[in-house]
Amino acid sequence: NLAVFLRAIVPVAETAGVMLAMHPDDPPLSELRGIQRVMNTVGDYERLLATHPSPHNGICFDVSLFGLMREPHQPSVPGLIRHFGDAIKFVHFRDVVGNKFEHVEVFHDEQGLSDHVHVMRALKDIGFSGVIRPDHVPLLAGEEGHQVGDKAQGYYLSLIHISEPTRLLSISYAVFCLKKKKNNKVQRQSKSELTKVYQQV
């Protein structure tokens, strides 16, 4: 069924300029509640890409799920990022502790199955320029909206700067944007305002 679907949809995606990104089964089990599932091993993703090779047939790389699905003899999550390279079109950056049968999500700045600095460096190494989403942001008492995720965004900005040193003004701008974010829109700021932030950081 997947092969039939890819044969039909990938040419359409190529024509429309759309990048397809297949998300893993969550949890990555071959069967769930009596239903067979098709994307729960590293081998499944290799077959996905081989079934219909195209720059538009790609992967949604969920850090936690690839951590759960990989076998001990297979590369680490950063190694898998380098293995799949530019086939990765979209990243869900979250993590868990446990195994594919029983696991718990951790806060984004907590240690999970993978070293997050090494994960971010691997994304840098493959030249990833797509979207990195802080997926499944846990909420604290009094917080609302699973989609807010400002605390996770700040953590990932830090990971980006740790994995690839950036000029201080760029760091200041990133911090300034987070502080000035309102109604989910980043407001444009003058150069003089940015300079003030630069001097404070």
Shape label? globular
| Strand elements, count | 8
pLDDT below 50 for ≥5 consecutive residues: which ranges? Answer: 166-191, 197-201
Percent of residues in helices comes to 40-55%
Distance between the termini: 54 Å
Q: Summarize the biggest pleated sheet.
A: 4 strands, parallel
Arithmetic mean of pLDDT: 81
Strand order, biggest sheet?
1-4-5-8
Using only C-alpha atoms, the radius of gyration works out to: 19 Å
Number of helices: 8
Structural class comes to alpha/beta
Strand/helix succession:
HEEEHEHHEEEHEHHH
Q: Strand share of the residues?
A: 5-15%
Structural notes for this entry:
- A hairpin with a 2-residue loop joins strand 2 (31-32) and strand 3 (35-36).
- A four-stranded parallel β-sheet has the order 1-4-5-8. A two-stranded antiparallel sheet has the order 2-3.
- It has eight helices and eight strands.
- It is α/β, with parallel strands linked by helices.
What is shown here, in short?
By secondary structure, this protein is of the alpha/beta class. 43% of the residues lie in helices and 14% in strands. The protein has a 4-stranded parallel β-sheet with strand order 1-4-5-8. A two-stranded antiparallel ribbon has the order 2-3. It has a two-stranded antiparallel sheet with strand order 6-7.
